[in-house]
Amino acid sequence: MAVGSMGVAGSLVLGSNRSEESVGDGSAPRIEPMFSYPSVFGLPDDVHERTVLDLLRRAVHGTSVHLTSYTVTRTPLATACLAAADRGVDVNVLLDDHLADADAPRRLRETSVGRVSLTIDGGIGDGSNHNKFLLVEELETGESNVVWQSSSNFTNTQRYLHNTSVVFRGDDDLYDVYRSYWNELAAGVTDRHYNRTAETDSATVYFSPRSDFDTHLAALEDVVPTRDATVRFMYSIWNEKRSAVVDRVRELVDGGCTVEVILNGNRSTVGHRLRRAGADVLEYPSTTLGRVTPGQPPNVHSKTMLVDADVDVDGETERRRLVYTGSQNLSKNGLSHNDETLLRIEDDDVYSQFVRDWERVHEQGRRLASGDVTAIIRSHW
Predict the structure, then answer these.
(1) Could you read off the pLDDT of 248-278 as tens digits, one per residue?
(2) What is the pLDDT of residues 280-297, one digit of tens each?
(3) Any idea which architecture 31-191 has in CATH?
(4) Residues 6+ apart with CB under 8 A from 304
(5) Domain with CATH 3.30.870.10 in the chain
(6) 3-class SS at 21?
(7) Which CATH architecture has domain 207-379?
(8) Inter-CA distances, 26 with 17, 21, 54, 138, 335, Å
């Protein structure tokens, strides 16, 4: 019975489930998603942390890495940063001041002199630096300009939550865009009207804080509501401050579009409104199938919107399969106050992997909510 970590095999760490864009010689894919599946039995999945530790271990002497995260309490990450620095890697860490006195940031602070460049409480917005990304200039494998973007923080709790990450390799423009953003975050100059968008070969990147438009609403306003269109959401936080997105969901449903939603039932407040709008809503329950370990119940921390629909592009309608993912919750803080990154990825294989993740999380959450113990046990054998 598989009751332990069920991270997607195929990450940099686990080594299978390669994207269809993998090079024929077996090298890593250009864009590689990965997903964590904490067990219904209360066991964690460390795939996102292990991916970052692996990237840090492979960073080449004399090159640089740049990491930023809202919360870091996991000491293995601090250890990996210090080890990379001791190998001659230029390690730069930027943290929000949230839990800045925890063991991991304190260890970095106390031992970083001459080893790790540490900045706490930088940022552009007047809220939190809620980002979660890592930039690696060069790996021992020969890969360069690697970008890891995640919804996951580095805390013990995160290991028990459904999260997503995407690794990009070899997109120099994407790497440069992120490096420029990291530098501005570290400089700490407040600008509520940052409103930066960049498009590269791999993704379109929307950086918050924004005052110009609602990123998610703008994307949904371009969707043509037809009966063969589907929009899926999986969010930790979706609150009333982004109610215009709920209103647009109603319009899409009224036009024939299928809208399916997974929410963290403890943190999101719009489930009832979405149901009235005609969306199929699962509020993921905070429960386990018995506590076989001193672990925690699984739940949702992802920030994902998936669009499979006809989309208006400069007055022309085109069928698009789009993944929106990153650190931004569907909250006013996420859009207008925090430092956040939202990616739009258009890649059929990446989209398919995100849909499979959505379906798997939905199935697990539905079974937990229904108390279908027999089906849950059978699914883990």
Answers:
(1) 999 999 999 999 999 999 999 999 999 999 9
(2) 999 999 887 765 556 688
(3) 2-Layer Sandwich (3.30)
(4) 151, 164, 232, 233, 234, 235, 323, 324, 325, 354, 358
(5) 31-191, 207-379
(6) coil
(7) 2-Layer Sandwich (3.30)
(8) 11, 10, 18, 19, 39
